[in-house]
Amino acid sequence: MSTTPSQTPRHGLSLGVGRMTPLVAGAVGVLLLLAGLVVTPDNDNGLTTPLPLLGYLLLVLVTWTVVAGVRREPGSWLSRRAVRRAVVAGIAVDCVGVVATSSPGLQLGSATLALLLLLVLLNIALGTATQRIATAPEGWIDERQEALRNRAHRGSYPVFAAAVGVFLVADVVSPPSREWVEHVFSSGGLFVLVELLLVLPAMVLAFIEPAPPPPDPNAPAPPRRANAQARVAVALVVLVFAIPLLASIALLVLPLRTSPLLSTGTTPAPVLSGSPGSGPAGEEQTPASWCANPTTTVTVGWGVTAQISATAYACWDGHRAFEPPATSYSDCWESQAFVTVAGTQCGPTTAAGPDGSLVFTWRGTVSPTLLPFLSRRLTVQVIIDRNGRAEVIA
Amino acid sequence: MSGPAHATPTRPAPRTVRCALVMATLAVTALLASALPLHGFGILVALALAALDLLLLDATGWLAFRRSPSLDERQRSLRDLAHRRGFRLAMVAIVLMWVVWFATAIAVTIATATTSTYSIPASSSVDNGIPGRIVLALAELLLMLPTLVIAWRADGGAVGDGFEGDQWSDPRRRWTPWLLLPVLAATWLAANAWLPLQSAPYAALSESSGGPPNTACREFGGGTMVGSEFGATVGLRANVCWDGTDAYVLGYRNLPIPTEALRNFGASAPQNWILMSLSACGVDNTADFAAISQTVCTERIDTAGTLHYSVTARVSPLPFGIAARTVSVDLVVTRNGRVLEQP
Asked: Would an 8 Å CB–CB cutoff place B80 in contact with chain A?
């Protein structure tokens, strides 16, 4: 028995265009709402980083669902055997690249991130090329496809066993090979293992599936709704890949967001011999100078973000503002998501203004991990005037 | 190859027997994947698992490993379906292995906390890589899941029908796979008796907790493996302090602290440090596939103040000291903290 994919009826649950479009619209609306919430100025509710990331993951899931609902037409470009095999080869090379470029730990380099994004793209292409037969529920595919995917799983089993077997043998052979295994699995090897577990049968299926019959010129054109869903799917895929790039560029151009200056309170300045505010010895003193430590949180970027919590330790006496002695700082620009911080100094430089004010300046250079050849120098200033009023300039 | 005239049809094993074999196989695999101590008897567990595998393979007519030309359409279909189910189950099985390991590691930790001086035997400070027992459990899953699926199915036992006349159903050849068991045992024994010793690095589980004033301390660790992952590891863990006069091990009650160092402690009693078990003797040994006995930790401080710390143990794969090896792990640190030798 041999049926072409387009003739194959699918049973069970299916999300048609009619039901999918409002779902997509709703999901995109939620995303925009989240985005609006996050980019609100002076927002420092602690959700700056996770919300865009969660929103993005939601978008990826929605995209996956929509793409899964799109039917491949027989004779389409992706269904050609050579193209399918090229996609399989691309995934294999990409997996090797992920292992080769990643370093141990959770922090992924720009090359690894780019390769992982490419892997997602290739997986989508593979799923479309094979009509996701490898993971389709029972009853969605015909007898020929069922036999084909079972055969693909049988083919992928020894491949997977051999891939894992290499690591198991390396773990036993010698201390250097054991170290190599640990290196691989503490870096990108885990991604590749999951990739193989999820996608290997589809890769084998794409490799062994015979070439589809040429399209019937007398066949009716695909329904309009199917075309609409395909267009939505393409748009979502483009969006999924464009967002990280746009967010990376936004890191370089968006204005800095600052939270209002907060201070734990004003306290009398420590009185040290010879320091401003110290009076004659032995007298009961009214403090002539006061100190405070106004703090602001400065965030750059959206989704791809870096942040600094800048605290200015300062005292003032009505004539001038000054820095209390022996003050130490640990305010650094820190990557919140997909940002490399370079050349940062943890703490400000201070300079006295002509009007008796004190200017604290924090500097740093940030670079999006996805576009490591671009960078932006950041400068945040907190100015304390001689009467203790603080102002932040970013 | 014998002809059809000499062949005896394979009698299908009852499903209850096959299911019992599957359950037993899973239980033994879970034991290997757990953190429960094997006390050197790991090879017996591995051999038991291999025997169960052979019984299962025999009961299913080795269907999962047969080539297509020797099968009819139904058998091919069942074999391929079993591979698909097996592949999908592999993912679940790997996750379950982690769960079993963590659950038993916690259980072992709690159980030994009440009976032993040391509370974390499930996690050694010596980095052994992927333990041999986990390697075996993973290999078992990778090789046998399709066979387990076939054996579990109601139609899995009748796969012997139609094999008559080929090498698999020849009764004279059915015992051949059982040669695997002595081969496995011999390989394991040879690895433990003759394979070169391998060094295992420090896993850096804890930081040094320091010592008396004007003293620098650092925790050292590491070990030596016998039989690679399928033997035993003799581990060393020592919190070494040095003060310019002497280097010494701090934190193990059986090793004396130099008089000068004791004086430096002043009011803070050194017993406090000792009770923290910064240094330990024998707790970082791993004895899954070979027994470890006679673990002795010795400290010698020479006239130059250099510490010579040594852990010596006897690794025995078999009872009565047969093929046993004496393993020593050494650490040498000068009075100024320079490391001259470490595992």
From this structure: yes
**Cβ B84–A165 below 8 Å, yes or no?**
no
For residue B134, the 8-state DSSP code is: H
By Cβ distance, the residue of B86, B132, B198 closest to A157 is B86
Range list of β-strands (E), A163-322: 257-258, 267-268, 290-292, 295-300, 305-311, 314-316, 321-322
A156 vs B contacts (CB less than 8 Å) = 87
How many pairs of residues across A and B have Cβ atoms under 8 Å apart?
65
Pairing of strands B198-200, A390-393: unpaired
Confidence of residue A271 (pLDDT cuts 50, 70, 90): low
Measured between alpha carbons, how far is residue A391 from residues A44, A157, A312, A359, A382 in Å? 18, 65, 11, 10, 6
Q: Do residues B23 and B164 both lie within one domain?
A: yes
Query: Under an 8 A CB cutoff, do A153 and B138 touch?
Result: no
Cα four-point dihedral sign B120, B125, B126, B129: positive
Q: Which residues contact B68 (CB under 8 A, 6 or more apart)?
A: B76
Same domain for B39 and B92: yes
List chain B residues with CB under 8 Å of A181: 129-130
Contacts of A150 in chain B (CB under 8 A): 77, 80-81, 83-84
Chain A contacts of B229, Cβ < 8 Å? Answer: 171-172
CB–CB contact A201 B84 (8 Å): yes
Q: Assess contact for A105 and A187: CB atoms under 8 A.
A: yes
Q: Do B77 and A178 lie within an 8 Å CB cutoff?
A: no
Tell me the C-alpha distance between A234 and A58, whole Å.
17
Angstrom distance (rounded) from CA B48 to CA B42: 10
Among A148, A149, A156, A157, most B C-beta atoms within 10 A, so best to mutate, is: A157
What DSSP character marks residue A78? G
Same domain, residue pair B20 and B160: yes
The pLDDT score that the predictor gives to residue B231 is 92
Token pair belonging to B125:
């400070």
Radius of gyration of chain B (CA): 26
ipTM over 0.85: no
Q: Which residues of chain B are within 8 Å of residue A154 when distances are taken between CB atoms?
A: 79-80, 83-84
Question: For chain A, which residues make up each domain, given as ranges?
Answer: 13-214+222-253, 257-270+289-393
How many folded domains does chain B comprise?
Answer: 2
In tens, the pLDDT along B192-247 reads 999 999 988 876 555 555 667 677 888 888 899 999 889 999 988 888 888 888 89
Are residues B10 and B146 located together in one domain of the fold? yes
B159 assigned to some structural domain: yes
Strand ranges for chain A from DSSP E: 257-258, 267-268, 290-292, 295-300, 305-311, 314-316, 321-322, 334-337, 339-342, 349-352, 358-368, 376-384, 390-393
| Per-residue pLDDT tens digits for A114-148 | 788 888 888 888 888 888 888 888 778 888 889 99
CB contact under 8 A, A157 and B199: no
Binary contact (B84, A173; C-beta < 8 A) = no
Residue B181 in any domain: the answer is no
Q: In what order do the strands lie in the sheet with A290-292?
A: A267-268, A290-292, A314-316, A321-322
At residue A10, the pLDDT reads 42
Contact B56, B25 (CB under 8 A): yes
* pTM: predicted TM-score of the whole model, two decimal places: 0.68
Is residue B246 located within the same domain as residue B309?
A: yes
Cβ–Cβ gap A153/B139 under 8 Å:
no
Q: Which residue of A has its CA nearest to B73?
A: A147
Quote the radius of gyration of chain A (alpha carbons, Å). 30
Measured CA to CA, the distance from residue A187 to residue A97 in angstroms comes to: 12
